[in-house]
Specification:
- The complex is a heterotrimer of chains A (about 375), B (about 200) and C (about 400).
- Chain A contains 14 helices and two strands.
- By secondary structure, chain A is mainly α.
- The N terminus of chain A is likely disordered.
- Chain C is about 45% helix and about 15% strand.
- Chain C contains 15 helices and eleven strands.
- In chain C, a hairpin with a 2-residue loop joins β5 and β6.
- Chain C is globular, with a radius of gyration of 25 Å.
- Classes of the chains: A mainly alpha (about 375), B alpha+beta (about 200), C alpha+beta (about 400).
């Protein structure tokens, strides 16, 4: 098995569905009666996220922000500062693990954990390629939407447990924000689900595949789809506390918001969770509106670009690059815009996004019924 | 209602403008401004691009008359002590010994030919205290005290921030002091003798 | 049955039945929380401490606590000669050292009653206006940070860096210049200085426009500052406000026009006040806009000064500097328009000493900050941050 798998890796576009067989074989792998293979499968997204947030998340954000601000960014550790995040991780690992004396110790410790788990649970249903999906739920989209709400519990635990006024403000703001923004986000995604007729993430993706590449994506199916697409993108910024909706951690108002008191590895875990959920919402939006792991390249007669760039590994490549594209936009927005105020945030949610989400919901329904 | 949609429109337009500006800067990141000084005629030629300098390797050039590290060219110092009096924060400590008449040639002259009349065993500048105002340099009659454009002179030990410019070692200073005391004592004795002589003369 | 505690709002009314305590009523009024904002807080611009009484996110009262950066400026001045006070004035408002020196120099010159060479005046105005632009760049940039926009801040500092370079080229130091002396200047400007300043003016105009597009016109920025912290003109005058703060409230008061000094009467520039169209008069946005407009006026002043500059032939910047400053017994109050408002020096001389008997600084930031209590009442925490940012305090000048 190993030789064939290796050869297939080297020529990814010739790969069929054998990766699926590979992962099934891995799932059946037992060591001393323990399901080690299952553990490895579960660990793959974790490893991916760790690597991504090290390379693209933290390093990329630093470099992108630096270039937008006429700076160089990290340059000292390694060529072009590429090892800077490794140095940071080493620093964070060495730091003393401080729990403030008057903090609620249980909540303080458990908060980052819940946050981390909450942002990673959704990775279970993200299809990374035709062959690779953690759990192929038939309510995948619903699950992904619902599980994100667990993050709120983590933020509230962290903010309350810190026994710090700034943290409390941050936590309370965050809860109000995330809970509110889930409504336009959910309705916007519902439009996508309506177009697909299913909540199964893998099926939504498959329905968008075809030989014309991007033309099959839901974003280009109907002009109405742009509306839920934009609404979900804006709402997702608020859900992952990114600027201009970063009021829970507003550094100029609330010092650092709900993680003011955190340091060392707990801080790193919160950081990792933030970058994890950034990728998660980017992946969800690309699955629902931009065809997930489908190649955007069309077949042009004999030049079958679409066929050449399809396959399990290409699929992973496409969804990750689509995710990175949206993360780039998130960073771009962050380094351009000022922050909204709490009441303006709610205004935007309840008076702008939610009505427009309902309108787009109705319009999508009409489009789906009357225009094939 | 029109205000509602107007708000959304201005919001979208201004956000797009802002994003256009940041994206322009993002793509301008292939240029770098370089470390040309302001006295370079081409200073304003490259206006876009990254403007960071990586400090220890690239530095902003300081102008030749930049006021940073205080330096005393002690061979020109006549020990007048005006700088000590002028310094608003008293960061200069100075001790002087009068030069004995037979040592005047050894002590030498300043570069503009003025005879130096003091040995300066101690001329300490605490550059950690110095606020680089430059007042001491303006009162200095021989212009031996001046600021150099060296801007980075950090130290790990605070004692190293005290710069010693004295032109005598401690032993030499002791010797000169003793010599001066001897001469003064001799002069004193001479004087006393003379006084005694005049006294006796007047008695007679 | 006995009532223990009754009418205090926010408390729990309980009653005792035999030996059990039973809650009969919970008052919904909540307790207020004391929130110490500062002295270490990202948006208090240094070591200002604001003791806020908050009800949720609403500030019911905010009291500024000062003195964390007190350095005994006035006492120091009584112990040094008149010329040696100049480096201390740099350290008052360290973002606008040239302007502080200018204010001190004209005050002592008033006391001494001496004539200054014309070229000195022109150079003084150029460096002071350059420094005004640098100072306003910091004010605008940090205001962006207060409202969450980080990028404009770095753009501002990039351009300020050039101004600091220019001033370093002229004076030898980057922030604490000791350049404008009583009766003259430390040095004449370098040979190419004026050409380079002119180039800077041409360079800076498009950059200022870009800054305006990126920050000032941004809808989120406008929404964050529009109608926040409104200060009516009469209250502002009563508080003794000055500078961009007072002009932000619609009062056309600029010492360069109203109590002219140096060569300002010969120059053509406007005193910008908000027109009520771009902002509500007296709000944070007005104050921000006044600063932005003032940078434009400063550029105009610099251009005019370069055009009118007398030639350097036979010019000695120290020709009018007295050998020993020992003014006649008397007192004087001199003031100048600083980037943050009126900086005044009250100097008393006993006629014998070469040191001032009393040297009081009337700092604009301190006076402007005094209205904090009025401004912050009933505002949200994010608005409080916006208000502090719009006051544009420099703690070096507040605490002295």
């Amino acid at each position: 098995m190993s030789t064939t798998a290796l050869s297939q890796f080297s020529i990814p576009f010739l790969m069929g569905n054998s990766l699926n067989a590979w992962s099934e074989a891995l799932a059946g792998f037992y060591l001393f009666g323990l399901p080690l293979g299952l553990v490895i499968i579960a660990a793959i997204p974790l490893v991916f996220i760790a690597l991504y947030s090290l390379t693209y998340g933290v390093y990329g954000e630093r470099k992108i922000s630096a270039f937008m601000q006429d700076r160089l960014g990290p340059m000292e550790v390694g060529k072009w500062g590429i090892l800077q995040t490794i140095a940071d991780i080493l620093k964070l690992l060495q730091k003393e693990d401080i729990v403030p004396a008057s903090a609620d110790k249980f909540l303080f410790v458990v908060g980052p954990g819940i946050l981390f788990v909450g942002s990673f649970l959704a990775f279970a249903v993200l299809p990374f390629s035709p062959a690779f999906i953690g759990a192929n739920l038939n309510v995948g989209l619903f699950y992904a939407l619902g599980i994100v709400a667990i993050e709120v519990v983590g933020i509230l635990a962290a903010g309350w447990g810190s026994n710090n006024k700034w943290s409390l403000y941050g936590a309370v703001r965050s809860v109000a924000q995330i809970v509110s923004y889930e409504i336009p986000a959910a309705i916007a995604l519902l439009c996508g689900a309506m177009m697909a007729g299913t909540l199964d993430m893998q099926k939504i993706t498959m329905l968008q595949s075809g030989t014309y590449g991007f033309a099959h994506f839901y974003l280009f199916h109907s002009p109405i789809a742009w509306l839920p697409f934009l609404i979900y993108f804006i709402a997702s910024l608020a859900e992952v506390n990114r600027a201009p909706f970063d009021i829970p951690e507003a550094e100029s108002e609330l010092v650092a918001g709900y993680f003011t008191e955190y340091s060392g590895m707990k801080f790193a875990v919160i950081f990792l969770a933030e970058y994890g959920s950034m990728f998660m919402v980017s992946a969800i939006i690309s699955i629902v509106f931009l065809g997930g792991w489908n190649s955007p390249l069309p077949n042009l007669g004999a030049i079958a670009l679409n066929d050449w760039t399809s396959g399990p590994v290409w699929g992973a490549f496409w969804i990750i690059s689509k995710g990175f594209f949206f993360i780039f936009i998130q960073m771009w927005l962050r380094w351009t815009l000022p922050r909204l105020r709490v009441d303006q945030l709610m205004y935007l949610c309840w008076k702008v996004l939610t009505p427009f989400a309902f309108v787009s919901f109705v319009l999508t329904a009409i489009w789906e019924i009357y225009i094939p | 209602m029109s205000e509602y949609f107007g708000n959304i429109k201005t919001g979208a337009v201004t956000i797009a403008t802002g994003m256009g500006i940041t994206l322009k800067h993002f793509f301008n990141a292939v240029h770098r401004k370089g470390d040309a000084g302001l006295d370079d005629a081409n200073y304003f030629r490259q206006v876009d691009g990254l403007c960071t300098l990586q400090y220890p390797r690239e530095v902003i050039p300081t102008p030749p008359h930049g006021r940073y590290r205080l330096y005393n060219a002690v061979e020109d110092c006549i020990g007048c002590g005006q700088c000590v009096r002028a310094c608003p924060i008293s960061c200069i400590t100075m001790e002087t010994i009068k030069v004995a008449p037979d040592d005047l040639a050894v002590c030498g002259k300043t570069s503009d030919g003025q005879q130096k009349k003091f040995w300066i065993p101690v001329f300490d500048i605490d550059v950690a205290k110095c606020m680089t105002c430059g007042i001491c340099t303006t009162v200095c009659p021989t212009e031996c005290l001046f600021h150099t454009p060296v801007s980075d002179f950090s130290e790990f030990d605070r004692d190293n921030m005290i710069y010693h410019f004295g032109n005598l070692t401690r032993l030499e200073a002791e010797a000169k002091r003793r010599k001066l005391a001897d001469i003064q004592a001799k002069a004193q004795a001479e004087k006393a003798k003379k006084a005694a002589e005049t006294n006796t003369e007047s008695h007679e | 049955m006995q009532e223990l505690d009754t009418a205090v709002p926010g408390s729990v009314r309980v009653t005792r039945q035999s030996d059990k305590v039973v809650i009969i009523e919970k008052d919904l009024a909540t307790e207020q929380m004391v929130l110490a904002m500062g002295p270490q807080h990202p948006s208090t611009h240094g070591v200002l401490k604001l003791e806020c009484l908050t009800d949720g996110e609403v500030i019911t009262e905010a009291e500024p606590c000062l003195g964390y950066l007190h350095r005994c400026f006035e006492k120091c001045c009584e112990n040094v000669d008149y010329p040696a006070v100049v480096p201390y004035t740099d350290r008052l408002d360290y973002l606008a050292g040239m302007n502080s020196e200018f204010a001190y120099a004209i005050t002592v010159e008033k006391l001494l009653d001496i004539e200054i060479p014309r070229r000195v005046e022109f150079i003084r105005v150029i460096v002071a206006e350059l420094n005004r632009i640098a100072s306003h760049l910091v004010a605008i940039g940090t205001y962006g940070i207060d409202l969450g926009a980080f990028t404009p801040f770095l753009f501002c500092f990039r351009d300020r860096e050039i101004i600091l370079g220019l001033l370093e080229w002229a004076s030898g130091a980057r922030m604490l210049y000791n350049y404008i002396w009583v009766g003259g200047l430390a040095y004449d400007v370098p040979a190419d200085f004026l050409t380079r300043v002119k180039e800077f003016v041409n360079y800076f105009r498009p950059k200022a426009l870009e800054l305006c597009n990126l920050l000032t016109e941004n809808e989120i920025f406008v929404k964050r500052t529009w109608g926040i912290g409104i200060m009516p003109a009469d209250v502002a005058i009563n508080y003794g406000w000055s500078g961009p703060m007072l002009r932000g409230s619609g009062v056309k008061w600029d010492l360069r026009r109203n109590d002219p000094y140096s060569i300002y009467p010969e120059l053509d520039f406007k005193v910008p006040v908000p027109d009520g169209k771009h902002s509500v008069i007296g709000d944070c946005l007005s104050r921000h806009l006044v600063r932005a407009w003032e940078m434009d006026e400063s550029l105009k002043i610099i251009e005019q000064c370069i055009d009118k500059m007398p030639s350097a032939e036979g010019f000695n910047p120290r020709s009018a500097i007295p050998k020993r400053i020992r003014p006649k017994a008397g007192e004087v109050y001199g003031r100048a328009e600083n980037p943050r408002g009126e900086l005044g020096f009250y100097i008393e001389s006993d006629g014998k000493s070469t040191k001032p008997v009393r040297c009081k600084a009337r700092s604009s930031c301190f006076v402007n900050l005094s209205a904090m209590k009025d401004l912050s009442k009933g505002q949200l925490i994010p608005d409080l941050v916006a208000i502090i940012g719009s006051i544009d305090i420099v703690l070096g000048e507040v605490d002295r």
